[in-house]
Write a structure and sequence with these properties.
With 382 residues, the protein is of the alpha/beta class. The protein is built from 15 helices and 11 strands. Strands 1, 2, 3, 4, 5, 6 and 9 form a 7-stranded parallel beta sheet that branches. Strands 7-8 form a two-stranded antiparallel sheet. Strands 10-11 form a two-stranded antiparallel ribbon. A hairpin with a 2-residue loop joins strand 7 (155-160) and strand 8 (163-170). The structure holds nicotinamide-adenine-dinucleotide and zinc ion.
């Protein structure tokens, strides 16, 4: 009688709500407030200090908003954390958030409201996901990349062992509020960064969107609101759809299509010690992966030209001295495989909206692809 097996499925329903608005603490506030369960909730506001310096009115406005809604919220003192990749490199950031969760009496029915770029969302979200085995997170993304990609993702994590996102968990935020007004203070460089992810997801999933990005790239680079906000919303929607409908929200399978262009991007970010930001490294990574597809005989040089053109028009620099050492970049392939586990699976694209997977690649192919990428770049002028 000792040979019993208990075997059943665990269903864990999760709602993934993403709102777009222009004024989250004014006219648009009822839209996210109505999601908050009845009663009063403890809430810990956490701010990306880079955002807070550039946009100081947001913190005081949010605090005043919470105080004005004291029937719904009881706020803990706001916490400031370093912005940018420092948030994911410095283990003290996670510790400081957990200390504030503890001292602020944040429980599993409370909220941590995070204002910041993708790096702060990742690091603070990680701390919130492991405290009490997970407290509720309200994300208020403040960069284009956080609004159109990172803030939509169900991944949290920090860098460790000199690798990106080595330490982390999957967890779904309570809600994501994408307020476009929070983007106004971004530098042009950080503004641009979100749109390489928009190009990435359009190439993977939506040929019509890729055409639109080609048409709108220079207006987006000039920060014209209408095409920029439209592109952010579509990219966010495509990422969101992939999580909801792709059949693998917690990435149990070995393919990770949304990481198109990322095996080299993550490596370039580490090798250049932050000289390349994530969105910039992704732009170069897309250039390398599209050259790889040509190298494999799957994509045409004209497609490669189109992809490089749209990225150049968005203002990305697609070359970097680090490309002189392809052997260092190649290490990223093995790190990528290990991070996913199992056999290597790289998703490439042969035409807009037409992805395919490869499972084997050698150093010679990478090296040739990088050469091909640089050669094509030299032939292009914007
Ligand atoms: N979890 C995911 O699914 C996911 C997806 C994509 C990217 N990411 C991660 O996101 C990170 C990149 O995020 P990012 O591009 O948002 O950059 P970032 O978070 O590094 O922020 C860039 C800079 O902008 C500052 N900043 C933020 N908002 C501002 C504002 N409104 N005005 C002025 N300055 C502001 C920050 O302080 C920082 O210095 C990477 O670590 C990447 O790995 C995560
Ligand atoms: Zn990315």
């Amino acid at each position: 009688m000792n040979n019993r097996t208990l075997d059943g499925d665990i269903q864990i329903p999760r709602r993934h709500v993403v709102l777009f608005c222009d004024d989250a603490f004014g006219k648009d506030s009822p839209r996210w407030l109505e999601l908050i369960p009845e009663g009063q909730h403890r809430i810990l506001p956490v701010f990306d200090s880079g955002f807070d310096n550039a946009h100081p009115s947001c913190r005081s406005r949010f605090e005043a908003f919470l105080d004005a809604h004291s029937d719904r919220f009881n706020r803990a003192p706001s916490l400031l954390v370093p912005g940018g990749e420092a948030a994911k490199n410095d283990p003290h950031v996670v510790e400081s958030v957990m200390a504030s969760i503890h001292s602020g009496n944040i429980c599993r029915q409370s909220f941590v409201a995070i204002f910041g770029g993708g790096a702060v969302l990742d690091a603070v979200g990680f701390a919130a996901s492991i405290a009490h085995r997970g407290v509720k997170v309200l994300r208020f993304p403040t960069t284009t990349l956080a609004q159109d990609d990172a803030g939509i993702g169900v991944k949290n994590g920090v860098n460790h062992h000199n690798e990106k996102n080595w330490r982390g968990v999957f967890s779904v935020p309570f809600a994501v509020v994408n307020d476009f007004s929070l983007l106004s203070t971004l530098s042009d460089r950080d503004w641009r960064c979100g749109f390489s992810e928009a190009v990435k997801v359009a190439l993977l999933k939506d040929a019509v969107e890729f055409d639109r990005l080609e048409r709108d790239a220079s207006a987006i680079a000039r920060r014209v609101n209408e095409p920029s906000h439209r592109a952010i919303m579509r990219s966010a929607e495509l990422h969101w759809q992939h999580i909801l409908e792709g059949g693998d929200p917690f990435e149990d399978q070995i393919a990770r299509p949304l990481d198109y262009g990322h095996w080299s991007a993550h490596r370039l970010e580490r090798l250049t010690r932050g000289d390349l930001k994530h969105g910039e490294a992704v732009a170069i990574g897309l250039g390398i992966d599209v050259a790889l597809a040509v190298e494999f005989g799957e994509a045409a040089p004209d497609f490669q030209r189109r992809v490089l053109n749209v990225l150049l028009q968005l203002g990305f620099d697609l070359d970097h001295p680090q490309l002189d050492a392809p052997e260092d970049i190649f290490v990223g392939i093995e790190q990528f495989r290990e991070h996913l586990g199992g056999a290597l699976t790289l998703t490439l694209v042969r035409d807009p909206g037409v992805p395919f997977d490869i499972h084997e690649i050698c150093f010679g192919q990478i090296s040739k692809a990088i050469e091909r990428h640089r050669f094509m770049l030299r032939t292009l002028t914007v």
